[in-house]
Amino acid sequence: MSKILVIRFSALGDVAMTVPVISSYAIAYPKDEIIVLSKDFLHPLFVHMNSNVKFMGINLNNYKGISGLNKLYEILKKEHFDYVVDLHDVLRTKYLDLRFNLSGVPVKKIKKGRKDKNALIRKKNKKLTELPSSFERYKKVFTTFGKDFEINFTSIYKNKEDAVIKENIRLKENSIPGEHLIGIAPFAKHEGKIYPLNLMEQVIFILTQNKNYKIFLFGGGSKEEKVFNNWCKKYNNVISLAGKFDMGTELKFINSMDVMLSMDSANMHFASLVNTKIVSIWGATHPYCGFLGWGQDYNNIIQLDLPCRPCSVYGNKKCMFGDYHCLKNIKPETIYQKMVEILSESESE
Q1: Strand partners, 129
Q2: Which end of the chain has the smaller Cβ count within 10 Å, N or C?
Q3: CATH assignment of 174-348?
Q4: What is the gyration radius of the CA atoms in the chain, in angstroms?
Q5: CB neighbourhood size of 173 (10 A)
Q6: Which strands make up the sheet holding 33-39, listed edge to edge?
Q7: pLDDT tens for residues 139-155?
Q8: In the chain, what are the domain boundaries?
Q9: Are strands 33-39 and 3-7 parallel, antiparallel or unpaired?
């Protein structure tokens, strides 16, 4: 029996990718106690895990600088951990790792494969090779303590009751027989991962021509809300969920979708965590970097095969051509056809 501290603070999608690994480990070793240390608002990702997983959510603003990290360490050391699993390996966690190591607590940390990722995104002599996924990298940290396991994961929800939306909003209000619920998450943190909004609007327009499709828009922030409200006014059967619910409720909405259309973003990972089928659009980034969501089908990835791709691991670099033609040259009809294909498959299952 071991008590293990697992640390990963950000980014949102990266934290989501820890879920299948931590969940699988917890099931494989039910006598071990796992404490997940992350940002407090991420608790919904872990709330349905086995009872041997506990979530410790914090506000990092309360632990700034060396003095703040010392304060956090003093809180953590009272838990008497046997091991520390650092799935982040940034300055903040490096300092905590040092303190634990000095106190005699073994620490293992993720190897991010930066050299291989740089070879994948460089302009010249690009090495377009599929790299280990984050799931594999996370698992490897755990196995360095001598405990092997398989990543067996389907959904954060163990039963249908967990995913029930209790709010007074009906997903199928004024529903019709054969209706399909479609989720669309058109935004991402960086421009290199966002399908042009004028083209996304064309996708929505085409979808709304089918009265059997009800479309839900996922996102957050004032910019997103403004765009979504405009689309809702222009097109029937389009509903914005932006800024209306907490993460836990949004996950339940995503679980209710027949298919999700997403960028390489957190919403792609959220859909993968609730076993919702996904069509993902990739521009400056590439699935070969290892950030494709859990269990996602490569056949449902939409991307252009260009010599300049990928040019960035995270989508935060400026396009060398200035226009991200890796995204703007994807036809709305291509996306629509893939969505229809998946919905047709679901009807025949």
Answers
A1: none
A2: C
A3: 3.40.50.2000
A4: 21
A5: 8
A6: 53-58, 33-39, 3-7, 83-86, 107-109
A7: 999 999 999 999 999 99
A8: 3-143, 174-348
A9: parallel
- Residue 118, exposed/middle/buried by CB under 10 A (0-12, 13-18, 19+)? exposed
1-56 pLDDT per residue, tens: 999 999 999 999 999 999 999 999 999 999 999 999 999 999 999 999 999 999 99
CATH architecture observed for domain 3-143: 3-Layer(aba) Sandwich (3.40)
Q: Report the distance separating Cα 340 and Cα 207, nearest Å.
A: 9
Q: Is 26 exposed, middle or buried (0-12, 13-18, 19+ CB in 10 A)?
A: buried
At CB < 8 A and 24+ separation, what contacts does 30-33 make? 31/1, 32/1, 32/2, 32/3, 32/4, 33/1, 33/2, 33/3, 33/4
Q: What is the dihedral of CA 189, 193, 197, 203, to 10 degrees?
A: -130
Instruction: Confirm whether pTM is higher than 0.90.
Output: yes
Listed residue (254, 290, 243, 56) closest to 156, CA to CA: 254
Q: Is the dihedral of CA 57, 62, 67, 71 positive or negative?
A: negative
Position 289, amino acid: C
Q: Which two tokens stand for residue 51?
A: 């009872």
